[in-house]
Amino acid sequence: MVTLTIFCSAIANPLVASLGTLKHRSIASSVAVVRSYATSVSLKRRYKSRLRSSSCSSRPIVCRTSSSALVSDVTERFPNGYPEYTRLLPCPSENMPPRIEHLVVSEGGPVLDYICRSLGLPSLFVADLIQFGAVYYALVCPEPPPTATPEQVRIFKEVTAPSVLKSRASIKGKTVREAQKTFRITHPDEFVEPGTYLRVHVHPKRFPRCYQIDWRSRIIAVTESYVVLDKPAGTSVGGTTDNIEESCHTFATRALGLTTPLKTTHQIDNCTEGCVVLARTKEYCSIFHGKIREKQVKKLYLALAAAPVPVGIISHFMRPVNLAPRLVSKDFVKGWHLCQLEVLECKEVPWPSTSTEQSYGIEDCSWHNKDVAFECKINLLTGRTHQIRAQFAAIGAPIVGDSMYMPASMAEMAEPSVNPFGEFREHYDSDDQRTNATEEWVLKHGKEPNAAIGLQACQISWDDGKCVYKAGEPWWRR
Fold first, then answer.
1. Is 364 a residue of the active site?
2. What is the per-residue pLDDT across 38-67, written as a single tens digit (0 to 9) for each?
3. Per-residue pLDDT tens for 195-221?
4. Cβ–Cβ under 8 Å, residues 397 and 306
5. Which residues contact 360 (CB under 8 A, 6 or more apart)?
6. Of residues 244, 247, 209, the one with CA closest to residue 132
7. Strands 312-318, 197-201: pairing kind
């Protein structure tokens, strides 16, 4: 058996688990499975212990695995529906350490059986992983990175040799690049032939907030073509690379009793709450995407800023790098994207109480003045990722609870020259100096919030105001 593995550290962004990650990960061979941790000898014992000790939601939730026989077996043995090793469903109280396994199938058979044997995981756990969308396959193993050892390269060449590929009927008519394209496994009984590449996200990113929400009460409108949802903070609209189960479109579909899954038309950050449109058909999904492209969709936001914000249009240029944090500059930078928002009003309000912050999981970022905050109404003119958060932080008024951008804003207040794109930036004699300064500036930012921040998509409208929907009260007013 050929086994491919990576050594994972804390994942700071979703791109680590993208389809192209293998090109930046090492490949190793072994007859036995190699674990994704340096202390691999004792992992199995520790792993089972961690699973047994993980606490779950107190409310029983039926696990919709692909095999009804598996579910009934668990229910019979454990009256409350929980197996002794703790299922992925319901959700544990915290995320497990990131772990991704890469395998090349040595003998054909059902994918669930092969993963269980290779990784020593319980079948019910693997069934849940497949339901989560956490298992991917490709007909041909992706190419190893430049840092691969000669032995690793030899293994790759062995399983992708033309003579080997020629004997596989499933690859006929495809180029190697086409055969390396990765797809989700959707059923535990799906057959995988020898030579198939598998990527298993053993510890998916979890969203426990999904199990705490009365989803039916969050539905704003239901039409024949779409559903408008008041998205709770701490949830993902359409899921992540390793978890499409714990998502707004999945839970909203179930809350409404729909037989056809709702479809994502646009995104807002996990830590943001408010209006989201979910399509009921593929046709309307395409229609709504067209409205967004043609700038027919208008969005209003409420932001709870830590400092006053001037009324009017605020413009920045955002670095075209698809990684958080998003860096912005007040001055034009060639190749950077224009970001514009209009602050319609800004009023002073009390800073949320400690109990309110605790109730919604607001992170304490050690802001110097927590007597008052400033509620701003914003007309979003361009729709860049993290735009409001990055722009407000850049003007010294970060969003309350934004553990990613508030630390950098505070660092710039203490030392204005630390921001290489700020008003008081230093002069750089070379591109290397600027690059180093940029890397240091990125490190001044914190981590992505786990729960809510002071940001709500309070209204969405399209077709010249013919369709207008509003969210409920933001969390800081409740």
1. no
2. 222 233 333 333 332 223 332 222 223 333
3. 999 999 999 999 989 999 999 999 999
4. yes
5. 233, 451, 452, 475
6. 244
7. unpaired
Question: Could you give the 3-state DSSP secondary structure of residue 23?
Answer: helix
Rounded alpha-carbon distances, angstroms, from residue 476 to 225, 350, 358, 406: 32, 9, 11, 18
Among the options 128, 230, 242, 269, which is catalytic? 269
Instruction: Tell me the Cα Rg of the chain.
Output: 24
Residue 302, token pair as written in the block: 């409420």
Judge residue 35's burial from the number of C-beta atoms within 10 Å of its C-beta, 0-12 exposed, 13-18 middle, 19 or more buried: buried
**SS3 per residue for 144-188:** CCCCCCHHHHHHHHHHCCHHHHHCCHHHCCCCHHHHCCCEECCCC
Question: Could you give the C-alpha distances from 426 to 323, 329, 410, in angstroms and in order?
Answer: 24, 14, 18
The strand pairing partners of 136, in sequence order, are 184, 199
By the 8 A CB rule, do 206 and 95 touch? yes
Q: How many CA atoms lie within 13 A of 174 on its CB side?
A: 16
Contacts of 264 (CB under 8 A, 6+ apart): 237, 238, 249, 278, 279, 285
Coil, helix or strand at residue 49: helix
Contact 88, 204 (CB under 8 A): yes
CA 417 centroid distance within chain:
32
Backbone angles phi, psi at 24, to 5 degrees: -120, 20
Measured CA to CA, the distance from residue 77 to residue 42 in angstroms comes to 28
H or E stretch including 286? helix 282-293
pLDDT digit string, tens, across residues 354-374: 999 999 999 999 999 999 999
CA terminus-to-terminus distance, the chain: 57
- Tell me the DSSP string of 306-324: SS---SEEEEEEE---SSS
Residues 127, 66 contacting (CB under 8 angstroms):
yes
Question: How many residues are given for the chain?
Answer: 478
Look at the pTM and tell me if it is higher than 0.70. yes
**Average of per-residue pLDDT across 317-329:** 96
CA atoms within 13 A on the CB side of 390: 26
Distance between CA atoms of 416 and 162, rounded to whole angstroms? 58
3-state SS, residue 50: helix
Q: Environment class of residue 199 by beta-carbon count within 10 Å: exposed (0-12), middle (13-18) or buried (19+)?
A: buried
Write out the DSSP string of 321-356. -SSSSPPEESS--TTPEEEEEEEEEEEEEEPPPHHH
Helix (H, G, I), strand (E, B) or coil at 191: strand
CA distance 182 to 177: 10
